[in-house]
Amino acid sequence: MTWHDHGNETDQPMIWLDCLDIPLVQMPDGTFVEQREDRGACPPTRPAGDSHLLWGQNLRPVRASTNPHRTNPLLIYPFEQWREALETMRRSEAPHPHEAYLMEFVNPLDGGPVMATMSAFARLVPAGFLTKSARATDGMVHVVTEGSGSIVVNSAHIPLTPGSIVVAPSWSERTISASEDLVLFSHSDGYTAKIIALAREFVVDADCHPVGLAKNELPEVRCAGISACRGRDLHRLSIHQYFEFSIGVEGFRHVQVHICGAIITPMNTTGSTRD
């Protein structure tokens, strides 16, 4: 647990997307919240950029704790760096048929996910590219940081523009297309499912053959998408999606949040919030 504040010190609009794992943490009764007595901002005790300079340069302080249960010490992943990493990946290889160009943010302590209960990803979908159908037991939250296109979540066709936020629930069929280079920042609870042996995925290969399930578990497949599953596949795993992760994106004046096709337009707030 650590003190933290939410704020915007610029004169431009800013979006804070707070995704919480509170329901998951509440199940073992592990939730703790403390407030400062003055209810004000926590005074900084380290210089700006401290965590990135110490932990984000393929280096670490020699005497720093490497306890695997320690919280990720890297507090920021600068957009300019991971955007260039996506371009480097594009120059190096062809896009994956189901993921396009996908990179995972990692904890510098162990190379694992950014937090014990969630993973975070950067994705580039090139202009004109359409990902093939895929399902997985992880729920995923996508934030568009650049470009335009669309995502289909089951039968819901949702346009994507800078500032769009889309939730793809567990075991939903997903495809993403880009009308121009599309860059997404995403959260996932897939790591939680993996460590408790509930992770599972289903994809269709280039010849429309199902991949990722044992033979006796294969659902019926068609090239245009994935039909209803047979047998126990109908009982999809319900791993609800909540996170504890915050991002700030400047310049978005209007944001729409899509959850299974429903549209929620949040209030436009530019002030500071603290919890």
Provide structural commentary.
- It is globular and about 50 Å long.
- It has a single domain (5-30, 73-266), classed as Jelly Rolls (Sandwich), CATH 2.60.120.10.
- The chain is mainly β and 275 residues long.
- A hairpin with a 5-residue loop joins β12 (201-204) and β13 (210-211).
- The protein has a 7-stranded mixed sheet, with helices on one face. Strands 5-12-13 form a 3-stranded antiparallel sheet, with no helix packed on it. The chain has a 3-stranded antiparallel sheet with strand order 8-7-10, with no helix packed on it.
- Helix content is 11%, strand content 29%.
- It has helices at residues 22-26, 50-55, 79-92, 190-195, and strands spanning 5-6, 14-19, 101-104, 119-125, 134-136, 140-146, 149-153, 156-160, 165-168, 174-178, 182-188, 201-204, 210-211, 221-222, 225-226, 245-250, 257-259, 262-264, 273-274.
- The longest helix has 14 residues, at 79-92.
- It is built from 4 helices and 19 strands.
- Residues 213-275 have low confidence and may be disordered.
How would you summarize this macromolecular structure in one to three sentences?
The chain is mainly β and 275 residues long. It has a single domain (5-30, 73-266), classed as Jelly Rolls.
Keywords:
275 residues; mainly beta; Jelly Rolls; seven-stranded mixed beta sheet; three-stranded antiparallel beta sheet; 4 helices; 29% strand; disordered C terminus
